[in-house]
Amino acid sequence: MQRYLGYACYAVNLITRKSDLYQFLRGKFVTVMSIKGIFPIDKWDFHSESVLADLPEKDVAMLTVHQSEQVYKKGEIIFREGAYASGIFYITGGKIKKYKVDKTGKEQIIYVANVGELIGYHAVLSEERYPDSAAAIEESSVAFIPREDFLATLEQSHLLSRRLLKTLSHEFAVLANSLTMFAQRSVRERLALQLIVLREKYKVDFQPGMPVEINMGRDDLASLVGTARENVVRVLTEFKEAGILVTKGRKIIVHDISKLLEIADYK
Question: What is the pTM of this model?
Fold first, then answer.
């Protein structure tokens, strides 16, 4: 069976990518690129985008009455650790990294937030300062909602309160999984796992078989994995040589998601 699949994939590569036959064969023989049903993405992703979805109009009006929106360039700071929590932030475009910086200035990315997600609300709810920093990984648009409007809406809306409670519980589980990953897994396993999660975050209008470009610099990727930049470059090179992925500048395109799942050994 493996021999026949090898012949089929070889034949597919000889056919022009623009042909209907190529599209058909591609779906039949190329490595399955959807992870639905084979990887528990919810264990590694916050999914706070559902918090504000389909709220009643009166709640939305109260929440956004003083809302402002700003475009942040790549690397631009949204808020800093220790700053007064003046409100919450809703990502309307791009991607934001949440991170902490140690005494030596080394950065550790805690999480990459996507379009539709909320950040900064933990500090508002706990009446504390921001426990981490946030910056744009790429050009991003972010809406700011003042704390007074957020808290007033939260007091008024039982739906929003329930959603936030559910989200906070889920985020605790995700962070627990992340701590276990850093404590028990090798750099190779951690990188494989993060590439799987990032690939899901970078899907735009995705259809099965479509390539997904992970557009992240090696320094940020190393910070997310929790290792040195040279280690990430070395392991990425190994993955490239094994045919698992290709790189175009800072962009990473995964070709064999099943191999990454095997390396990550997430179970």
Answer: 0.79
State which amino acid sits at residue 221.
L
The string of pLDDT tens digits covering residues 42-67 is 676 776 567 888 899 999 999 999 99
Task: Return the bridge partners of 77, or none.
Answer: 135
Summarize pLDDT for 69-113 with one digit per residue, the tens.
999 999 999 999 999 999 999 999 999 999 999 888 899 999 999
Distances from the Cα of 32 to the Cα of 48, 166, 216, 243, 255, angstroms: 28, 32, 23, 15, 9
CA 238 and chain centroid, separation: 23
Stretch (H or E) spanning 83: none
* Burial of 174 from C-beta contacts in 10 A (0-12 / 13-18 / 19+): middle
Q: What is the DSSP letter of 82?
A: T
The dihedral built from the CA positions of residue 96, 197, 42 and 267, taken in this order, carries a sign that is: negative
Grouping H, G, I as helix, E, B as strand and the rest as coil, residue 213 is strand
CA distances from 250 to 35, 45, 238, 253 (A): 23, 23, 16, 10
* Sheet strands (E) in the chain: 68-72, 77-79, 87-93, 96-101, 107-113, 118-119, 133-136, 140-146, 213-215, 245-248, 251-254
**SS3 (DSSP) at 111:** strand
Angle (nearest 5°) at CA 131 between 118 and 76: 65
Task: Dump the DSSP string for 139-197.
Answer: SEEEEEEEHHHHHHHHHH-HHHHHHHHHHHHHHHHHHHHHHHHHHH--HHHHHHHHHHH
Nearest Cα to 150, choosing from 60, 81, 79, 70?
A: 60
Reading the block at residue 196, the tokens are 């799987």
